[in-house]
């Protein structure tokens, strides 16, 4: 297909949401009134033990809880009763819930760790839109074990679903790695299970005198049931805050908030890459300060920033000529991360915080310290981040300052306009790199939107065509998911504090998906999801470097089993020869390679103690054949031990030579209690003959502080590379009550 013809297709898809919005106005889902409930001020706090039914304070609060199914039987009442109560004192927000269950002995719990995935367990989750802006929120959840699950949501959780992301991160509107300071307790009884949430107001960001948006979700796993308080159309979830209900009755004072979070760390390292390796003993101290300037605006200060307790990256193999994406996992950069995210997540990230303190080869560049001011002023989101890194003489890295200034004003109707300034400045030279950008979105009712950005970079090279932009429109309603976009990255665009999946391209893309549910309530199939998607990358000489047309159908059964069957029509245009085998001299020559491949994905019910996930891609590649197989076996023993064993197999049989590139990964965890755990990550990468082990013990206190013991060990080609033992203790002190 010619590039010019694709332009007509993209224009049609971009305009399609306007027609769909107009055609469905009369009967659309959002004409239903959103539910409302009232929070009750209570004189004393309830006893936080998980028992809601026998607490006199809770009995003074009126219960509600008419929840309806989004699956398996859309629109029908929940099969089990739920009672929800909401109250608050002068400094704490409380939610009490009773999840009645006829078979409490059949409750499914898969993991006892903080932030463990609740999708495949019996769980209760809610979202708070404390700004009442229908865009941003805080998520809290738990299961019958009392697990603490929390996250931040921005932009209603909507991000780019088409980027080639090898690992999930904080991008895309949903930040699971945010950890607030709060408590939850649960109890299991003959009636089912209950839970009590106590969330200090200083943990939240809110504007006094306003109602909040709120919604609740409950998972009932024995019937594979998902139910909501404010009904959700098929294809949407709790993050869709513009469809949430309303919480009234809040008379909240502005809480003071000043926290000191110091740490002390000791470590033993031995680096076998140097001559005469010896054990090196060292120590560090540092910490953070958190101060609420207003209830909705927070100042964070950090000194001698350390991330020793963070889980190491998962191994990846680069089987193409483009960049690999590794997600941000460091705690300081995770709070309000969505505020600073501008661009096309995973493909054109204008600000990528891993550029601060991590060198190009993954080496550590010490962070002296920094500050972040983030939050909201009325309907305007503001963010200012400034960090300083040390000089690393042996790596020829000078001292740098990194500054990001972000503003984004939200209008009514899911519409916003913003700008960002990103600056990297060498403190010992004239080196600099700047990115300036504007971005915005236009809400088309509650069903569709248009989003876009335009960015320009500056550096001492004074390059031309240093621009990038994207325009996207999408429609999600009435079982349809439709989106189309056009992205362009100029030859001179160079965001050194950002991430580019690839440089210098023009990219049209589109996707159409439909959720088809059988009308027969007794059918074993829950849903079919036929869909088609396309993306193509052209360089500025109108040469097609990548084309990917994907036609697929997903079959999801009510018992949790899924099967995805698809076919891919691909084109790879190679301009310069490259070694696809990363060292085995399998050199792909310039030219255009057109192929077809089959794709199969199968996984069993992930709430079972044992489940399997299989992904297979077989077809042509660079004039030959490739076999890409992935198998993950998950084993759960009770509610404490969880394990995943993954084998990634890549076999290329090309005209230029044959090779294999495999990764084995085992992830093990045992939770003694929800706040005490031990985790192990053992990986083998055959491409660089690397074995890597990471073992972490955590004894959590508030907001993911506490005691951490970390052991790292690496072998390459049978020889030790480096190993370390790290002991770190961090604690949170409230200086204002």
Share of residues in helices: under 10%
CATH domain class name of the domain at 32-248: Mainly Beta
Q: Work out the number of β strands.
A: 44
CATH fold label of the domain at 32-248: Immunoglobulin-like
Q: Shape, please?
A: globular
Explain this structure to me?
The structure is a single chain. With 737 residues, the protein is mainly beta. The chain has a domain at 32-248: Immunoglobulin-like, CATH 2.60.40.1190. It has a 24-stranded antiparallel barrel. The model is unreliable at 1-31 and 160-171 (pLDDT under 50).
In short:
4% of the residues lie in helices and 52% in strands.
Topology:
Blueprint: H1 3-23, E1 36-38, E2 40-41, H2 56-59, E3 68-71, E4 82-88, E5 92-100, E6 123-129, E7 137-143, E8 149-153, E9 174-175, E10 183-189, E11 192-200, E12 212-220, E13 225-228, E14 245-248, E15 258-271, E16 280-294, E17 297-305, H3 337-340, E18 343-344, E19 348-349, E20 367-377, E21 380-389, E22 400-411, E23 415-426, E24 432-444, E25 448-458, E26 467-477, E27 480-489, E28 499-500, E29 505-514, E30 525-538, E31 544-557, E32 562-574, E33 578-579, E34 587-588, E35 591-603, E36 610-621, E37 624-637, E38 641-654, E39 657-673, E40 676-685, E41 690-700, E42 706-716, E43 719-730, E44 733-734
Parallel strand pairs: 1-14, 2-4
Antiparallel strand pairs: 3-13, 4-5, 5-11, 6-7, 6-12, 7-8, 8-9, 10-11, 12-13, 12-14, 15-16, 15-43, 15-44, 16-17, 17-20, 18-19, 19-28, 20-21, 21-22, 22-23, 23-24, 24-25, 25-26, 26-27, 27-29, 29-30, 30-31, 31-32, 32-35, 33-34, 35-36, 36-37, 37-38, 38-39, 39-40, 40-41, 41-42, 42-43
């Amino acid at each position: 297909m010619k590039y010019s013809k694709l332009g007509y297709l993209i224009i049609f898809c971009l305009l399609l949401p306007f027609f769909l919005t107009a055609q469905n106005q009369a009967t659309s889902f959002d004409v239903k009134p959103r539910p409302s409930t009232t929070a009750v001020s209570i004189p004393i706090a309830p006893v936080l033990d998980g028992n809601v039914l026998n607490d006199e304070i809770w009995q003074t609060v009126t219960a509600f809880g008419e929840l309806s199914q989004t699956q398996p039987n859309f629109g029908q009442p929940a099969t089990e009763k739920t009672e929800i109560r909401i109250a608050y004192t002068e400094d704490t927000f409380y939610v009490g819930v009773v999840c009645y269950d006829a078979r409490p002995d059949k409750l499914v719990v898969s993991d006892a760790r903080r932030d463990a995935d609740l999708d495949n367990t019996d769980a209760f989750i809610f979202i708070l839109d404390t700004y009442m802006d229908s865009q941003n929120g805080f998520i809290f959840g738990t299961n019958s074990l009392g697990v603490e699950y929390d996250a931040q949501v921005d932009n209603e959780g909507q991000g780019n679903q088409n980027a080639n992301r090898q690992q999930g991160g904080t991008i895309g509107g949903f930040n699971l790695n945010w950890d607030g300071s709060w408590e939850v307790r649960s109890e299991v009884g003959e009636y089912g299970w209950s839970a009590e949430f106590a969330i200090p107001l200083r943990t939240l960001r809110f504007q006094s005198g306003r109602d909040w948006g709120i919604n609740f979700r409950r998972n009932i796993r024995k019937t594979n049931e998902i139910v909501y308080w404010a009904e959700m159309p098929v294809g949407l979830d709790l993050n869709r805050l513009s469809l949430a209900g309303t919480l009234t009755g809040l008379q909240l004072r502005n809480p003071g908030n000043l926290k000191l979070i110091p740490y002390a760390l000791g470590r033993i390292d031995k680096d076998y890459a140097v001559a005469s390796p010896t054990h090196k003993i060292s120590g560090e101290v540092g910490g953070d300060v958190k101060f609420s300037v207003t209830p909705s605006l927070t100042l964070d200060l950090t000194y001698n920033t350390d991330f020793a307790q963070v889980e190491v990256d998962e191994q990846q193999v680069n089987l193409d000529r483009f960049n690999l994406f590794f997600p941000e996992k460091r705690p300081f950069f995770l709070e309000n991360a969505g505020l600073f995210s501008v661009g096309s997540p995973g493909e054109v990230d204008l600000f990528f915080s891993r550029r601060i303190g991590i060198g190009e080869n993954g080496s550590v560049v010490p962070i002296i310290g920094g500050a972040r001011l983030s939050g909201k002023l009325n309907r305007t989101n503001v963010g200012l981040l400034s960090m300083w890194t040390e000089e690393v003489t042996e790596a020829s890295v000078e001292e740098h300052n990194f500054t990001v200034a972000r503003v984004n004003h939200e209008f009514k109707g899911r519409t916003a306009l913003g700008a960002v300034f990103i600056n990297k400045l060498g403190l010992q030279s004239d080196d600099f790199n700047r990115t300036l950008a504007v971005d915005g979105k236009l809400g088309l009712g509650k069903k569709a939107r248009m989003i876009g950005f335009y960015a320009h970079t500056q550096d001492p090279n004074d390059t031309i065509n240093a621009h990038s932009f994207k325009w996207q429109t999408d429609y999600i309603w009435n079982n349809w998911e439709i989106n189309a976009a056009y992205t362009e990255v100029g030859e001179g665009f160079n965001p050194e504090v950002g991430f580019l999946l690839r440089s210098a391209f023009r990219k049209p893309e589109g996707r159409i998906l439909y959720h088809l549910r059988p009308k027969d309530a007794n059918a074993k199939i829950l849903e079919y999801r036929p869909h088609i998607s396309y993306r193509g990358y052209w360089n500025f000489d109108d040469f097609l470097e990548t084309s990917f047309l994907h036609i697929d159908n997903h079959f999801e059964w009510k018992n949790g089993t899924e099967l995805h069957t698809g076919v891919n029509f691909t084109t790879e245009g190679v301009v310069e020869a490259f070694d696809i085998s990363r060292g085995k001299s399998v050199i792909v020559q310039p030219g255009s390679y057109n192929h077809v491949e089959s794709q199969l994905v199968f996984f069993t019910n992930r709430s079972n103690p044992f489940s399997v996930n299989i992904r297979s891609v077989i077809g042509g590649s660079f004039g030959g054949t490739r076999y890409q197989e992935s198998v993950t076996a998950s084993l759960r023993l009770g509610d404490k031990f969880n394990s995943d064993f993954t084998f990634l197999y890549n076999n290329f049989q090309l005209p230029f030579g044959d090779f294999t590139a495999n990764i084995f990964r085992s992830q093990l965890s045992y939770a003694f209690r929800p706040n005490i755990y031990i985790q192990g990550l053992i990986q083998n990468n055959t491409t660089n003959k690397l074995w890597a082990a990471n073992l972490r013990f955590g004894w959590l206190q508030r907001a993911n502080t506490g005691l951490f013991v970390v052991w790292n060990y690496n072998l390459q080609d049978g020889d030790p590379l480096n190993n370390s033992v790290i002991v770190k203790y961090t604690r949170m002190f409230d200086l204002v009550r």
